[in-house]
Amino acid sequence: MVLVGLGVPQTLQGAQVVHTLQGQIQTISRGPVASLEAIKQLGTNGGGYFNANSAHPYEDPSAWTTVLEMVAMGVISCALVWTFGRFIGNRRQAVVLYVYLTKCLGVGGVCHLRR
Question: Which of 34, 40, 50, 83: disulfide with 3, CB 3.0–4.6 Å?
Fold first, then answer.
């Protein structure tokens, strides 16, 4: 609902045909974009509703949607590690995973900066 409020389209209607100022006809694609964003963030199998990831202006219409999607990617990843610890009944292993993944992120960031 937050993405819809920030301008990401959410409709079950198909594409809309409009007339441009030059008098030509243009087809504007639209669909359930906002509800598919979480699925796009979790999966690694494609580029979202418009097949351009968040580069399409309808999937990412403002800076606030960009920030929201970046936070969601981090929160979802952390939640999966936390859920792992809950499922096995040992939260200490989740903490060990957090530390290890944070070190991997740090090493990757440092190596990237040295290039």
Answer: 34
